[in-house]
Design brief:
This protein is an alpha/beta fold. The chain has a single domain, classed as Rossmann fold (3-Layer(aba) Sandwich), CATH 3.40.50. The protein is built from 7 helices and 10 strands. The strands form 2 sheets. It has a 6-stranded mixed beta sheet, with helices on both faces. A 4-stranded antiparallel beta sheet has the order 2-1-4-5, with helices on one face. Helix 6 links the parallel strand 7 and strand 8. It is globular and about 50 Å long. The chain starts with a strand and ends with a strand. The structure holds adenosine-5'-triphosphate (ATP) and magnesium ion. The site of magnesium ion has 3 residues, from helix 1.
Length: 226
């Protein structure tokens, strides 16, 4: 089953009289449960593409269809609702809320969605156990290591059991070994939570562990081994 289809997606920014082309005619199709890697050098447009795929940004032209919703023409409110329930986002620098502990951070999307506290905290606790942090439920972000914070961010992204996980260099600021653990973790969680993923990375070795590899060069996306 096809989950996400981006067709002829282009993105340019006006720069005085000129325009800078960031993405050019990008096509990407993602099946349910498929995990794809996008690699590319700094500035090649990876984050821009990921934001467009998640409805956080709009392309200059082209369409993005996610589960029969056109993310380009839907309102910000509709897209925000979809992101809360069906799309999980992992940022390069985790973006955890410093004044909330691990369990509260993970529960936040459910609480925002109107879930009861008891349900949200029970699910958050289970997810933290699933990512190996059952002993760190009440720790605040500044009391966690970089890899642990990234695990909390993964738990938060999965709490609504989204069909799609978008991860922007989730291992970018971790050492090789911790980065590899995060990839193994995503792979093992896939069995329980059945999500498709688009993972942006600089790391060829980690990219090869996923089902499909794409390379973004100067705004053009090509599929193929890396
Ligand atoms: N709001 C904006 N206005 C103008 N140019 C922008 C804007 N946002 C991004 N860009 C430009 O788009 C290009 C791609 O940016 P993007 O963040 O997608 O790159 P990236 O591949 O994620 O890089 P990195 O690996 O460093 O995170 C960059 O050259 C950047 O300067
Ligand atoms: Mg980026």
């Amino acid at each position: 089953m096809t989950l996400l289809v981006a067709t002829e997606v282009s993105k340019s920014y006006a720069d005085g009289e000129h325009s800078i082309d960031i993405l050019q005619h990008v096509n990407l199709s993602l099946s349910a449960g498929e995990h794809v890697a996008i690699i590319g050098s700094s500035g090649s447009g990876k984050s821009t593409l990921l934001h467009i795929l998640g409805g956080l940004d709009v392309p200059s032209s082209g369409t993005v269809i996610f589960q029969n919703h056109n993310l380009v023409t839907s309102s910000d409110t509709q897209n925000a609702k979809l992101r809360n329930t069906d799309i999980g986002f992992i940022y390069q620098f985790h973006h955890l809320l410093p004044e909330f502990n691990a369990m509260e951070n993970v529960a936040m999307p459910l609480l925002i969605g109107g879930s009861s506290k008891s349900n949200a905290y029970a699910k958050a606790q289970q997810l933290l156990i699933d990512v190996g942090l059952g002993q760190r439920l009440k720790h605040f972000p500044n009391q966690l290591s970089g890899g642990e914070r990234q695990r909390v961010a993964i738990a938060r992204a999965l709490i609504n059991e989204p069909a799609l996980l978008l991860a922007d260099e989730p291992t970018g600021n971790l050492d090789d070994e911790t980065g590899e653990e995060i990839y193994h973790l995503l792979d093992s969680l896939k069995t329980k939570y059945a999500f498709a993923a688009v993972v942006v990375t600089h790391d060829l070795r980690l990219a090869q562990k996923l089902d499909t590899q794409y390379r973004l060069i100067k705004g053009r996306l090509t599929q193929g081994s890396v």
